[in-house]
Design brief:
There is one protein chain. With 417 residues, the protein is of the alpha+beta class. The chain folds into 2 domains: 19-219, 2-Layer Sandwich (Cytochrome Bc1 Complex, Chain A, domain 1); 238-416, Cytochrome Bc1 Complex, Chain A, domain 1. The protein has helices at residues 58-64, 75-84, 109-121, 127-144, 148-161, 181-191, 207-219, 265-276, 282-290, 321-337, 342-359, 363-375, 381-392, 395-405, and strands at 19-22, 28-33, 39-46, 88-93, 98-105, 197-203, 238-241, 248-256, 297-303, 308-317, 412-416. It has a 6-stranded mixed sheet, with helices on both faces. It has a 5-stranded mixed sheet with strand order 7-11-8-10-9, with helices on both faces. A hairpin with a 4-residue loop joins strand 9 (297-303) and strand 10. Helix 1 (58-64) crosses helix 6, helix 3 runs parallel beside helix 7 (207-219) and helix 8 (265-276) crosses helix 14 (395-405). The longest helix has 18 residues, at 127-144. The relative contact order is 0.16.
């Protein structure tokens, strides 16, 4: 008879330390070498997110147009060469940063890094491709904004920060018609520079691999360090938008708090997990299992470069909207008024620790966590500390944090539908 091995939940993790290399022009390259996988991934991270742009949509357009043609390769040639070798590159952009990642088998690193050189150093932003890009994005955004979930997401950002704050702006999709190639070129020249970049490499990295990536980094122009000045956030406690034709209402409740560097951030991550961070959370049980109001609800701490906030989000049938909101506030008050049961808290800790271990299972996940740590001014020991903080948190800590940060009068409420 076979016996299942015992389940062991670790109270600590050993996070690989990134090796730091600094190029002649000051670009920091962090390497996470391993010979267990015959792959290489390298990510160039630029402080070139949407909060850095001077005109709506220029940051995302610049990032997404990098692979649409270069000095020596057309968009089709770039795609075909990467596809031929089974390599890929991926572009992601958020409020603060642009992430450009390339991945290949180790044996095909050389042709992949040749394409990466073209994309990163010699983009041309062709007029024809830009026109197609703007047309598609304009149409896609217009369609997305018909959905109550998208509208509530944008309205929630406005309620948290103010409609003129870089984190709260939502621009009209018609402004895609006003994008010009020279604006993308200007933003690229300003932000895609050595002073504005760091690189993280993971996988099978030898001296020649590091040399090739270093060559790209050293070819970046020096540039100047520009950290935009942000106005103070202007929060709005209640924003409701009625849509008579909507069958559902999208609800978002939360508040502006602090970024990941704050000592209470990890504790508030646990509080958010208790409320709506996993399938067995309190809000999921209440709204879905007990009342049947929704298919899903989430609660999470969100981290930006200069701000952070708590968000609770769900969609319900419009005739259940008021009842659902009442239940959300009920669960928040229950967390403030009663100590959480040890068994429930241990379940939350297990889920959170297990998710961290899942993310760290492989070189790419470790690289992603390393990037996040670097952006917060930390090294990878921060992840080890976070696991220890999660393991050490007690029911009294949960109640204290809920009482301190989740008072009803401090919460922001957005409803669309």
């Amino acid at each position: 008879m076979q016996q299942q091995p015992p389940i062991v939940i670790p109270h600590s993790v050993d996070m690989p330390k990134a090796e730091l290399h600094t190029t002649a022009n000051g670009v920091k390259i962090y390497t996470l070498p391993t010979d267990d996988f015959e792959v290489v991934r390298f990510s160039f991270v630029f402080r070139a997110g949407t909060s850095m742009q001077h005109k709506p949509f220029t940051a995302s357009a610049t990032a997404n147009m990098l692979g649409e043609g270069s000095k020596h390769l057309s968009a089709q040639q770039i795609a075909e060469q990467l596809d031929f070798y089974g390599s890929y590159f991926d572009v992601n952009i958020d409020r603060d940063y642009t992430y450009i990642s390339f991945c290949s088998l180790s044996k095909f690193f050389t042709p992949t890094v040749e394409v990466a050189t073209e994309i990163l150093l010699h983009p041309t932003f062709p007029e024809k491709e830009l026109s197609v890009y703007c047309s598609k994005r304009k149409q896609s955004l217009a369609i997305e904004r018909r959905k109550v979930d998208m509208q509530s997401r944008e309205l929630f950002s406005e309620a948290l920060f103010g409609r003129h704050h870089p984190y709260g702006i939502s621009s009209d999709e018609e402004l895609y018609d006003e994008l010009r190639r020279e604006e993308l070129v200007a933003l690229y020249n300003e932000l895609y520079t050595a002073n504005n970049c760091f690189v993280v490499c993971s996988g099978r990295i030898d001296d020649s691999t590091l040399a090739a990536i270093t060559a790209i980094a050293e070819a970046l122009p020096q540039g100047s360090t520009r950290l935009a000045e942000f106005p103070a956030p202007i929060t709005t406690p209640r924003l409701h938008r009625n849509i008579d034709t909507a069958l559902q209402s999208s609800i978002r409740i939360g508040r502006l708090l602090f970024p990941r560097t704050h000592p209470d951030f990890v504790g508030m991550q646990v509080v958010a997990a208790v409320l709506g961070g996993y399938f067995g959370s309190r809000l999921m049980y209440n709204l879905r299992e007990q009342h049947g109001y929704t298919y899903g609800v989430m609660a999470a701490m969100v981290n930006f470069d200069r701000e952070g906030y708590l968000a609770i989000a769900t969609q319900v049938a419009r005739h259940h909207r008021d009842d659902a909101m009442q239940q959300i506030y009920f669960e928040i008050e229950r967390l403030r008024g009663e100590l959480i049961d040890e068994e429930e808290l241990q379940m939350v800790k297990n889920v959170m620790t297990g998710e961290i271990l899942r993310i760290l299972d492989g070189p790419f996940g470790i690289a992603d966590v390393t990037i996040e740590n670097i952006m917060c001014g930390m090294d990878n020991s921060a992840t080890e500390r976070n696991v220890e903080l999660i393991a050490a948190i007690q029911p009294e800590d949960i109640q204290r944090l809920a009482q301190q940060y989740l008072a009803r009068e401090d919460l922001i409420e957005v409803v669309v539908g």
